[in-house]
């Protein structure tokens, strides 16, 4: 495992300033845009059915997050996926609350058949998306009812089906692709007290996938940047409000040395 690749990918994102199209939920648009700006990317919240396909063709990366969906947004997401696929633009599926509600679960499972470059979710969402257990109830809203390790079998199935990379968020994040598992430990519990930290990670993953690095390494590096900034922010913040500001600042100021200082990596071959 070459952990020095991760700071190099972080530097590439800052140098290339990728344009990330975000088809995401209304609750997190503001923080997602600010997170992308903080890591060095450029956000665009373009999700209408008539424009999504064309924009996906010129974007560097695309995020599909059906957290607060409407029928129009579903149509926009399908158009964006079609445009991204035709143009070879990497796209990320964030299956928010998959397994909890019938309509969104049906949509998320169907869009996963279009082979996203990466899938990012909590353990319960990943398990529900893979649909290995028809009796699985999913998490409580956007909160996971399962530990990250419990989702590894589902993540392996999804990686095999899509040919992409699967990121599982938890106390220790786990990134799975065919032949590799990487664990990233960092972050801070205060991240769970700020709306949009999880959803914004999907956008960070889309940005990182766009710079030409190995996809597995790119997804690990995205999780590491996100997580290391959380650990750095916790050094000066003690409550959610101050943490949110400190975390955005940390995403912007994080150095290569700090990326390795505030995260640990564990690699496993399959």
Low-confidence regions: 137-142
Helical proportion?
Answer: 40-55%
Sheet of most strands: 9 strands, mixed
Coarse morphology: globular
Order of helices and strands: HEHEHEHEHEHHEEEHHHHE
Number of helices: 11
What structural category do the secondary elements indicate?
Answer: alpha/beta
Strands, total number: 9
Strand % is 15-25%
Radius of gyration: 17 Å
Cα(first) to Cα(last) distance is: 14 Å
The largest beta-sheet arranges its strands as: 2-1-3-4-5-6-7-8-9
Mean pLDDT: 94
List the helices and strands and how they pair.
Blueprint: H1 5-16, E1 19-23, H2 29-39, E2 42-44, H3 52-58, E3 61-65, H4 71-87, E4 91-94, H5 102-112, E5 118-122, H6 123-130, H7 152-162, E6 165-169, E7 172-177, E8 180-185, H8 197-209, H9 215-233, H10 240-253, H11 256-261, E9 264-269
Parallel strand pairs: 1-2, 1-3, 3-4, 4-5, 5-6
Antiparallel strand pairs: 6-7, 7-8, 8-9
Helix pairs in contact: 1-9, 2-8, 2-10, 3-4, 6-7, 8-9, 9-10
Pfam families: HK
Function: Catalyzes the phosphorylation of the hydroxyl group of 4-methyl-5-beta-hydroxyethylthiazole (THZ).
InterPro entries: Hyethyz_kinase, Ribokinase-like
Features:
270 residues; alpha/beta; 9-stranded mixed β-sheet; 48% helix; globular
């Amino acid at each position: 495992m070459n952990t020095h690749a991760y700071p190099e990918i972080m530097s590439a994102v800052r140098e290339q300033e990728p344009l990330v199209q975000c088809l995401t939920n209304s609750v997190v648009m503001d923080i997602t845009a600010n997170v992308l700006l903080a890591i060095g990317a450029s956000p665009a919240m373009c999700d209408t059915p008539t424009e999504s396909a064309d924009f996906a063709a010129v974007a560097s990366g695309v995020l599909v997050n059906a957290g607060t969906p409407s029928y129009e947004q579903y149509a926009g997401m399908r158009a964006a996926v079609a445009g991204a696929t035709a143009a070879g633009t990497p796209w990320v599926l964030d299956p928010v609350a998959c397994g909890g509600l019938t309509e969104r679960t049906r949509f998320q499972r169907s869009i996963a058949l279009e082979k996203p470059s990466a899938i990012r979710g909590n353990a319960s969402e990943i398990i529900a998306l893979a649909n290995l257990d028809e009796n699985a109830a999913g998490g409580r809203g956007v909160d996971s009812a399962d530990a990250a390790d419990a989702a590894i079998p589902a993540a392996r199935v999804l990686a095999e089906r899509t040919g992409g990379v699967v990121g599982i968020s938890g106390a220790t994040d786990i990134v799975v692709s065919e032949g590799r598992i990487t664990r990233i430990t960092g972050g801070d519990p205060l991240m769970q007290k700020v709306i949009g930290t999880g959803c914004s990670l999907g956008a960070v993953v889309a940005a990182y996938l766009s710079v030409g690095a190995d996809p597995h390494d790119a997804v690990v590096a995205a999780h590491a940047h996100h997580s290391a900034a959380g650990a750095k922010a916790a050094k000066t913040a003690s409550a959610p409000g101050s943490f949110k500001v400190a975390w955005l600042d940390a995403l912007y100021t994080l150095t290569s040395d700090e990326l390795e200082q505030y995260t640990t990596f564990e690699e496993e071959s399959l």
